[in-house]
Write a structure and sequence with these properties.
With 398 residues, the chain is α/β, with parallel strands linked by helices. The protein has 13 helices and 17 strands.
């Protein structure tokens, strides 16, 4: 069998290892951490399930295939989770725009559509694109909150072309394993071991071997120095890609009659709440908790992109208490709070991501990169990218 090496044992690396093993490669996976999973992880607590990062997959043909391969039964989101809110004028609203902003939005969309100008320009930020096709009000109150909830960055820092070049996202069905996202990772890891994929944990890769087909499935900060000797321009683009440290805090509360039922609520910048958004976990997936379970999402510090200093849990707890008091107009103390710090965090889908995409073809033929900075963001997209690993990539000596 032809050897292949995967650097990183997060979701991308595990999925890549599966595809390579299916293609008949002898696969070795190297991971700096002590175990598999990367950012993905679930914690069973006395109060309910806590997800460290992504809470679900977008359900599509690719995701369905992976659930079938792993013999997992999907738990689909509850019907009530279709309700989504954006905070505006002091409270969560299903539609945050007033009459004037709604009219401007409709008029600008119609004008841009008639002139076939709905596609983003390469040099446009999301803020510029939004102002052009939707108006300032819709950008600040609707587009900005929706995208910062995914990318953890303000619309001024995001590239419209990088985000919308594949089209505009619609309402999507989501699903997760009944035991949480870690169940997917654990099942995948177990089956890879059954397929004799070898794993080395606790040892970061310090160099790449051109004689071995290699899939890089690590973050941009780790990938850049590994690539430098083989593709300097690509390594520079990796190093120039900004990241946003993210903190998620899952809090459990006693239920209250005024609790909202739905997917969650997004918070425009400048609304008096530092959080990017809040997920209503127990409303999304039935049976996750008998308490009110909420996950609050922060780019930390809340006013910065690319910050390096993680907060202490007490900082997160104070900010969550303050934000929830504004959002609910109630002063309720949580039963428990579990915070997870992700640093360096998410890649910022700004102009540097476009440059990185332009440089991906500079890689040597034995090397491929797979991660949330090489295509669309999201765990379902990572699975799809793994399936597209090209059989044409071969070691230089082949």
């Amino acid at each position: 069998m032809t050897p292949a090496r995967v650097i990183g044992a997060g979701l991308s690396g595990l999925a890549a290892a599966w595809v390579l093993a299916e293609a008949g490669h002898e696969v070795e996976v190297i991971e700096a951490a002590g175990g598999p999973g990367g950012l993905i992880g679930s914690r069973q607590t006395p109060y309910g399930l806590v997800e460290r990062a992504a809470n679900a997959f977008v359900w599509n043909d690719v995701t369905a295939r992976w659930f079938k391969r792993l013999r997992l039964t999907p738990l689909f989101a509850s019907p009530g989770s279709r309700r989504r809110f954006i905070f505006g004028n002091g409270r969560p609203r299903r539609w945050p725009l007033g009459v004037r902003d709604t009219a401007i939005l409709a008029g600008r969309l119609a004008f841009a559509g008639a002139r076939r100008q709905l596609r983003p320009r390469r040099d446009e930020s999301v803020a510029q694109f939004g102002h052009r096709i939707a108006g300032a009000g819709a950008t600040r109150k609707l587009i900005g909150p929706a995208l910062q909830g995914i990318h953890a960055a303000p619309p001024e820092a995001l590239s419209a072309h990088a985000i919308f070049r594949h089209g505009f996202p619609g309402r999507r069905v989501i699903a997760a394993p009944a035991g949480g996202m870690e169940e997917f990772v654990a099942r995948l890891y177990d089956q890879l071991q059954d397929r004799r994929v070898s794993f080395t944990f606790g040892r970061p890769a310090d160099r790449l071997d051109p004689a071995v087909r290699t899939i890089l499935c690590c973050g941009v900060r780790h990938a850049a120095p590994l690539v430098a000797a083989h593709a300097p321009a690509l390594a520079s683009a990796l190093a120039n890609t900004e990241t946003t440290p993210v903190v998620t805090a899952t809090a459990f509360f006693e239920p209250h009659p005024e609790d909202l039922d739905g997917f969650g609520v997004l918070f425009p910048r400048g609304c008096g709440i530092a959080a990017l958004g809040c997920l209503f976990n127990a409303s999304i997936f039935a049976g996750r908790s008998s308490l009110r379970s909420e996950t609050w999402i922060y780019a930390w510090p809340p006013s910065a992109v690319g910050a390096l200093t993680p907060p202490v849990d007490a900082d997160v707890r104070r900010q969550l208490d303050a934000d929830r008091a504004v959002a609910t107009r109630r002063d309720a103390r949580p039963v428990a709070v579990f915070a997870t710090h992700h640093s360096p965090g998410l890649p910022v889908y700004g102009p540097a991501i476009l440059e990185l995409g332009d440089r991906l073809d500079d890689r040597p033929p034995w090397l491929e990169l797979l991660g949330n900075y090489t295509g669309r963001p999201g765990v379902s997209s990572l699975l799809a990218s793994a399936e597209r690993l090209t059989s044409a990539s071969r070691p230089a000596s082949a």
